[in-house]
Specification:
Number of strands: 4
CATH superfamily of the largest domain: 5'-nuclease
Low-confidence stretches: none
Strand order of the largest sheet: 2-1-3-4
CATH class of the largest domain: Alpha Beta
CATH topology of the largest domain: Rossmann fold
Order of helices and strands: EHHEHHHHEHEHHHH
Structural class: alpha/beta
Strand content: 5-15%
Helix content: 40-55%
Distance between the termini: 36 Å
Mean pLDDT: 91
Number of domains: 2
Radius of gyration: 16 Å
């Protein structure tokens, strides 16, 4: 648990890559106080590179995109200097490029690592107290507990998104980003 009482969580770079999803997770942390998001410079750099290379964003646009985390969660920065040096990261993920994400999750005391990446070795990370899960699973369960808060949160996100969009457009984007079950529950609650 963090200083706020909410469980700490890491958004993998594939979640940061989806603006709608990482902003949704940020709103869940900031407005509903269900998570305490943590981040590291290496994770942000990986996300920036990915946004430039795969989405074709300019360096400035990518920096603003990933800047959402430090701007909204300044206390979430985790210094990884010397952190978890005794851990065998090859036992935690199939991808050596994800060692820094595992280090961040362990060093920060994260309860969750949100990702769509299947290369993480879930049972081994669980041994370090880190549950590897897709955002859809967490969001769906949390929606059942606090649906009113989520409906307000989604209305605000839709109003803020690109100068204002409809709830239907936002939910479709969330669904495309990999949170289809959550989007379906929200759609039903909105009567759509």
């Amino acid at each position: 648990m963090s200083r706020t009482g909410a469980p700490r969580a890491v958004l993998d770079s594939d979640i940061v890559f989806s603006r709608v999803l990482h902003e949704l997770m940020g709103r869940v942390a900031k407005r509903l106080e269900l998570l305490d998001l943590v981040w590291g410079e290496e994770l942000l750099a990986e996300a920036r590179r990915s946004l430039v290379e795969k989405k074709g964003l300019s360096d400035d646009a990518a920096a603003r995109w990933v800047g959402y985390l430090p701007q909204n969660f300044p206390d979430g920065e985790t210094d990884l200097t010397g952190a978890a040096e005794s851990v065998d990261f090859s036992a935690l993920t199939d991808d050596p490029d994800d060692h820094h994400v595992c280090r961040l999750a362990i060093a920060s005391g994260a309860a969750y690592l949100f990702t769509h990446d299947r290369g993480y070795l879930r049972s081994t990370l669980q041994g370090h107290g880190v549950e590897v899960t897709a955002p859809d699973s967490f969001l769906t369960a949390a929606f059942d507990e606090t649906s009113e808060g989520f409906l307000d949160l989604l209305e605000r996100q839709a109003a803020d998104w690109a100068g204002g969009r409809s709830i239907d457009e936002l939910l479709a984007a969330i669904e495309r980003a990999g949170a289809a079950e959550f989007a379906g529950k929200a759609r039903a609650a909105f009567g759509r």
